[in-house]
Records
---
Amino acid sequence: MRTAGFLRKLHKWLFLLVGLQALLWALSGFYMVVVDLDFIHGDHLVRNQREPLPAVTPVAAETVLVDFGRVDSVSLRAIQGRPYYLVRADGSSYRFDAGTGAPVAALDARAAKALARYYYNGDALPRRAQLIKEHPPQEIPARILPVWRVDFEDRYGTSLYIDPVSAQLVTRRHDYWRLFDFLWMLHIMDYEARADVHNNLLRFVALLVFVGTSSGIALLYFRFRPRRPRRKRQEVGA
């Protein structure tokens, strides 16, 4: 009985400590399982990015690379029906008109909105364009800066992030993704980067839950184990 009493107290106090987190695990896990992952990624919000190259003979790539020292990558892409060379060299990105070989200036706010409207798969209009150079919001990594953020007036709260130099769609975010990201933070208990699934806090709380659950299983044994029959006291005659 002493063992059962100890297990009962251990089980009660452990789940008083970690019960809320266990509930958060259940609720966040339910959302992650029920909502389709492709929907969370925002695949329905953008058009097919595999735009075919137009029937135009581009200038030789060497024409636009002649002034660069080290070239990391070069690709030929079509954007809004026009071919461009996208070059990554000397730690920076560049865009050239593949028809003429001329460099293309970085996007301004008006061009960013127009391009976002081109990428967007919907009828809503862009309401704001913001060039983010530092201190990015939690929903995007700092490595993609600088980047244009274009917000749309739709029911999803859509934001498209576009590279100002390459004019490529970098990523997209919407309110259901933001809710997913918040729940993911609660699920893995990484309240800063929201990426470390092996952090010590998560391990510690998981250990407490394991011990608490094990104590509850042990209590089932004491609750349902066969009881020994009590011996009747012999009456002592006078």
Note: The chain has two domains: 2-38+181-224, 43-173.
---
Amino acid sequence: MSIFSELELRYLNEGVSLGRLATIDAQGRPHVVPTGWNYNPTTDTIDIGGRDFANTRKFRNVQANPKVGFVVDDVLPPWKPRCVQVRGTAEALLSAAWPDGSARDAIIRITPEKVVSWGLEDLAGTAGE
């Protein structure tokens, strides 16, 4: 069973491809960056990767402190914000399989500990579509 609700999974799989990852730097300050991501149904995690990823500040921050926050959000007109917020523990992996089975040199894999969402009610009537 997933930590994500059915509506949260529907939203995450809807195609919103940009999220914001918050890590903590060596001085204890937050570091927040936009990033691409994928939901991994095999591990029930959020997987984040990118170009030369093992050499990024976010990757180094996770190696030093695994506590992270991650947000995927958007706004529907006229003003209807939707969001899935994930707080959890991340691993900085030097190699891993992406959800589609392809290999990645380095990723951050977030294991959710707490998920909070809002504005997803419009997805309730789309089951099976």
Note: Residues 57-64 form the longest helix (8 residues).
---
Amino acid sequence: MAIPFAYPTLRNAAMVLACAALSACSYVLLPPNVQHVAPPSTSLAEADRKLAEARERRAAIEAEFASSEQACYKKFFVNSCLEKAREKRREGLAVVRAVEVEAELFQRREKANARDRALAEAQKEFEAEAAQRAANPRPERVEEPAPPPKPIAAQVNREAANAAKLKRIAEKEAAEAGKRAENAARFEKKRQESVRRQAERAKRQAEREAEKD
């Protein structure tokens, strides 16, 4: 749909804002001095649909330009015809690009939010486990009084059994300590990864903004 440039810029801006409120109004041809506005996406499914439509629209614009270009070579005013065809193509692609930028930005923001929510949930679970361990500490082992002397063979067997029991207890405690350290390391790795990705997203966004300027 093309908005005729026959009224002041204020009226054009009002029509842009009205169009932005309608999800069906994804492609609007505006005068060169009015910035293209893409309706905001409200879900990942909608953003995916917009990108698919943008690809189709881009292909249609290129096909139309190729056809117009061939037709221009058959006319008397070839250069004027080609210039109009190029301007129409440029304007159409600018509108498509505005839709693509908005949809891609929404996708990146939603995916980043999902990762942040997953990381926050992992941190919440880790802190809950730590609080539970702190509230229910392992009871200290109470030494039993030494039994009365027994025959040598029985005493040897008992000492071996006690040694094996102590070894099992020590191994279990070491395994649990290693698991706690592993959980803490995994959480710290996730946190650092989230910080790194956020920095990369900010850097890429700044580079895109710089390229637009």
Note: The chain has two domains: 9-112, 152-213.
